[in-house]
């Protein structure tokens, strides 16, 4: 249920004659689960020994819980102005979690009945936004889905990366097998260099109208972290011209019983380092996916291809990943059984850090709808990975040694979860 309020009831106490206040819609979702998690220790014959990467424990996880404030104003002539403010809602403050205001999709825009929507602010990239069409094998907003440890090489929020910030590329130009969100050490919050699941800060986007079930989406980011290459004016003595850029695009096509999506994203100069020795290449990702509803069962497929131009200026090389997904949903009364399998393989890399870095993820769950707004579920997720792989479930997940701690290379992770989603 959505509640419409006159903006700040207290405003009535200080009302100016003739002043108009916008109507604000408040909505959101609380999504939490109690989890039993097991991380194996690849260096030990014991799968649970409470040392190194091996631990078994109970935890509680928030799965994209949020609160939204939205407002719309008709401008006439088929135009509507809107704003959206969205914040994450945490379970509580921990040694790594800080849920600030409006850190999720937040922006302003104008809708047109003829040419679509133009918006600016912070918003999911089109490449990321289409995953809900094919990732039907897990409960809604369940964090242990294919998009975290297998697809997109992790999830991140922020501006384009900067060599003066901390991000997921080593000084040797190698891709580090970690998808945790980097620490902020600049004035701006820089997103991870290798992630293709991005919420874009300082973004401008266009979303087309829906034409016979087809919609186009396009986005870019401002290059606010561009450096001049003049060490006098550039922090940390960056001696190379650094001008990052990115584009993200997607298409959605919806039919009466099916949906098809495709996406492409390109990053340029995301791999710079302060010493200027890393290759300034172009990284690219594309994916296709879709689902079909047969009635008694809904099935989905997806494929993703990632290509990174990395290494150093002296020794350039490429890093390649191929990811697959198959999922299904089987309605049963007021609920459904959901199952999914995803596979990620690394190819064409000369770096030891990415050899034997393949991973597989299994999902199985049952969800039951108590009402149109409330759902409970039980879920199982198992991540299997090679000795050189350190894929991560995401920053919502309590890791081996606590909040947001990375899974060790070669460690398998298993979650058994009992959760509840409530929309308001």
Task: Tell me what the structure shows.
The longest helix has 4 residues, at 126-129. The protein has a single domain (32-62, 114-423), classed as Porin (Beta Barrel), CATH 2.40.160.10. It has one helix at residues 126-129, and strands at 3-6, 23-39, 55-62, 66-76, 79-88, 106-112, 116-124, 155-158, 197-207, 214-221, 245-254, 258-268, 282-293, 298-311, 316-332, 335-347, 359-369, 374-385, 398-399, 402-403, 413-423. Helix content is 1%, strand content 48%. With 424 residues, it is an all-beta fold. The radius of gyration is 22 Å and the shape is globular. Strand 15 (316-332) and strand 16 form a beta hairpin. The strands form 2 sheets. It has a 16-stranded antiparallel barrel with strand order 2-4-5-6-7-9-10-11-12-13-14-15-16-17-18-21. Strands 19-20 form a two-stranded antiparallel sheet. The termini are close together. The protein is built from 1 helix and 21 strands.
- Helix share bin: under 10%
Distance between the termini: 5 Å
- The number of domains is 1
State the total count of DSSP E strands: 21
Main sheet: strand order: 2-4-5-6-7-9-10-11-12-13-14-15-16-17-18-21
The major beta sheet can be summarized as: 16 strands, antiparallel, barrel
Just give the CATH class: Mainly Beta
Briefly characterize the structure.
Helices cover 1% and strands 48% of the residues. The protein contains one helix and 21 strands.
């Amino acid at each position: 249920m959505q509640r419409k309020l006159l903006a700040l009831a207290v405003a009535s106490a200080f009302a100016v004659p003739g002043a108009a206040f916008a109507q604000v819609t408040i909505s959101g979702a609380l999504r939490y689960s109690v989890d039993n998690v097991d991380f194996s220790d690849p260096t030990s014959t014991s799968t649970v020994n409470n040392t190194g990467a091996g631990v078994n424990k109970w935890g509680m996880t928030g799965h994209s819980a949020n609160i939204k404030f939205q407002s719309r104003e008709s401008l006439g002539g088929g135009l509507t102005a809107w704003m959206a403010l969205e914040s994450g809602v945490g379970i509580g403050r921990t040694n790594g979690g800080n849920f600030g205001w409006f850190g999720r999709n937040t922006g302003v825009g104008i809708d047109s009945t003829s040419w679509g929507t133009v918006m600016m602010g912070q918003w999911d990239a089109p490449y990321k936004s289409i995953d809900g069409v094919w990732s039907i094998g897990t409960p809604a907003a369940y964090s242990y889905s294919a998009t975290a440890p297998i697809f997109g090489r992790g999830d991140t929020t922020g501006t384009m990366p900067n060599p003066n910030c901390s991000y997921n590329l080593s000084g040797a130009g190698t891709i580090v097998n970690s998808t945790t969100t980097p620490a902020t050490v600049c004035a701006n919050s820089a997103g991870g260099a290798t992630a293709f699941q991005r919420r874009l800060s300082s973004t401008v986007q266009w979303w087309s109208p829906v034409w016979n079930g087809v919609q186009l989406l396009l986005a870019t980011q401002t290059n606010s972290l561009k450096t001049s290459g003049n060490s006098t004016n550039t922090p940390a003595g960056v001696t190379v011209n650094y001008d990052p850029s990115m584009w993200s695009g997607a298409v959605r096509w919806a039919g009466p019983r099916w949906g098809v999506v495709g996406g492409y994203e390109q990053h340029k100069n995301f791999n710079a380092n302060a010493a200027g020795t890393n290759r300034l290449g172009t990284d690219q990702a594309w994916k296709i996916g879709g689902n079909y509803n047969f009635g008694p069962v809904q099935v989905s497929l997806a494929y993703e291809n990632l290509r990174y131009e990395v290494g150093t200026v002296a020794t350039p090389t490429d890093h390649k990943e191929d990811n697959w997904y198959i999922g299904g949903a089987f309605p049963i009364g007021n609920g459904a059984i959901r199952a999914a399998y995803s596979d990620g393989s690394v190819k064409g890399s000369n770096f030891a850090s990415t050899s034997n870095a393949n991973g597989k993820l299994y999902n199985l769950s049952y969800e039951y709808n108590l009402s149109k707004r409330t759902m409970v579920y039980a879920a199982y997720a198992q991540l299997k990975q090679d000795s050189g792989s350190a894929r991560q479930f995401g920053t919502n997940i309590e890791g081996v040694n606590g909040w947001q701690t990375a899974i060790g290379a070669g460690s398998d992770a298993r979650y058994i979860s009992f959760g509840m989603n409530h929309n308001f």
